[in-house]
């Protein structure tokens, strides 16, 4: 069974939370304020979803 861990050349930005027995593959980047609960393969980039600014006028977007 994989014990998890952080491989070489990984960048973990401030505020990231790594939960559980996960492996972060070589050369991956984990963005700030991300909650990571699963293993990621080498070269992966994990970031937060961007918020959208939308208006709901006259029923638009509903």
H/E topology pattern: EEEEEEE
SS elements, strand count: 7
Low-confidence stretches: none
Radius of gyration: 16 Å
Share of helix among residues? under 10%
Number of helices: 0
Summarize the structure in words.
With 62 residues, this protein is mostly beta strands. The chain has a three-stranded parallel sheet with strand order 2-5-7, with no helix packed on it. 0% of the residues lie in helices and 23% in strands. It has no helices and seven strands.
Concise overview:
The chain has 62 residues and is mainly β. It has strands spanning 5-6, 11-12, 17-18, 23-24, 29-30, 35-36, 45-46.
Descriptive labels:
mainly beta; elongated; 3-stranded parallel β-sheet; two-stranded parallel sheet; 62 residues
Topology, please?
Blueprint (H helix, E strand, L loop, with lengths): L4 E2 L4 E2 L4 E2 L4 E2 L4 E2 L4 E2 L8 E2 L16
Parallel strand pairs: 1-4, 2-5, 3-6, 5-7
């Amino acid at each position: 069974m994989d014990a998890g861990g952080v491989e070489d050349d990984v960048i973990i930005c401030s505020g990231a939370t790594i939960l559980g027995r996960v492996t972060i593959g070589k050369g991956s980047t984990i963005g700030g304020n991300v909650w990571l609960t699963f293993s990621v393969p080498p070269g992966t980039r994990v970031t937060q979803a961007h918020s959208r600014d939308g208006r709901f006028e006259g029923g638009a977007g509903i």
